[in-house]
Fold this protein.
Amino acid sequence: MSPVVGEPAPGFTLPSTSGTDVTLAQFREKSNVLLAFFPLAFTSICTAELSSFTEDVTRFAAANAVVLPISVDSIPTLREFKAKEKLAVELLSDFKREVCRAYGTLLEDKFFSRRAYFLMDKQGTLRWSHVEAELGHRRDDDDLLAQIAAL
């Protein structure tokens, strides 16, 4: 079950491709956070989506938002993916599927996450969420940036 808009977002700590752990709470009072759950590294839609985040990294920063892409892939896989695609965003590994379950995105039968977005304000409150009905669909960055601008 997904968290409810208007309530505090479920906290977490996950390893990242930078080699350090990322905690949702570390952004509190500093910036808005967009969690972007994606199914699997090295797939066409996910590659396009994360490349788009890289192209627009300055636009998200100007909107005072940090984008945290999350998948169930291992850190070594995500590091290889990041290097191959020259991605500017750090990728988070939810290898144990705990965060996917907390946010209601895990497809239990496939054991990976559906594509979903959760936007938190600086206080850590969930302000907007969207779960794609089909794995092949994704939000455009302009749509995501419009949601951030509406905070």
Summary: The longest helix spans residues 44-55. The domain at 32-149 is CATH 3.40.30.10 (Glutaredoxin). The first strand starts at residue 13 and ends at 15.
